Amino acid sequence: MNLSFFDQFASPCLLGIPLILLSMLFPALLFPTPNTRWITNRLSTLQLWSIHSITKQLMTPLNKEGHKWALILTSLMMLLLTVNLLGLLPYTFTPTTQLSMNMALAFPLWLATLLTGLRNQPSISLGHLLPEGTPTPLIPALIMIETTSLLIRPLALGVRLTANLTAGHLLIQLISTAITTLLPIMPTVSILTTSILLLLTILELAVAMIQAYVFVLLLSLYLQENI
């Protein structure tokens, strides 16, 4: 069967049942369950250290009112981080390459931050739509531009995450296909291309972590504007 490069982004199915929900829930099983012991193993210590570091980085730009969102933002960060990294393994499916899933994560959280601002401080939240000192003739145009930039935020969050991960997976597959094609013809070129593939894989590991961090960090900044 002739497969295209984009078949790797199709949601896997078993007996007609989509397995995307299973691929989203599976990373949670990799985390060790917490216990009440003071002295734990190295894996639990590493997990606690990473969660503490992530929470500290995300909560730094927020005031005390925004610390109520610590559990949601940290959990989202760990979910995106594990899903992105596990998607780089061979014969695995990356749910975050689906725009529908990323929009399902971005839109409700963005809307929650917006509604929080409109409920707690409506005048300040609406004041972001019109910069102070704007000339009177430019007021209608600036309000339309700022409203459009506000409404496009969840779309930018979802598209940024989808595009970065999809581009990285496609590059890895293209270079891997080139290596297998060149190996019987030009072994030396194939070996050199393998080194490029190794460097690209390391880059994709960094991109997977950075994009998860950027997604949640932008949500925390949107939250800071509305509290």
From TrEMBL:
The lineage of its organism: Eukaryota, Metazoa, Chordata, Craniata, Vertebrata. It catalyses: H(+)(in) = H(+)(out). Component of the ATP synthase complex composed at least of ATP5F1A/subunit alpha, ATP5F1B/subunit beta, ATP5MC1/subunit c (homooctomer), MT-ATP6/subunit a, MT-ATP8/subunit 8, ATP5ME/subunit e, ATP5MF/subunit f, ATP5MG/subunit g, ATP5MK/subunit k, ATP5MJ/subunit j, ATP5F1C/subunit gamma, ATP5F1D/subunit delta, ATP5F1E/subunit epsilon, ATP5PF/subunit F6, ATP5PB/subunit b, ATP5PD/subunit d, ATP5PO/subunit OSCP. It is found in: Mitochondrion inner membrane. GO terms for cellular component: mitochondrial inner membrane; proton-transporting ATP synthase complex. Its main location: mitochondrion. It is a multi-pass membrane protein. GO terms for molecular function: proton-transporting ATP synthase activity, rotational mechanism. It comes from Spheniscus demersus (African penguin). This is ATP synthase subunit a. NCBIfam families: ATP_synt_6_or_A (TIGR01131). The gene is ATP6.
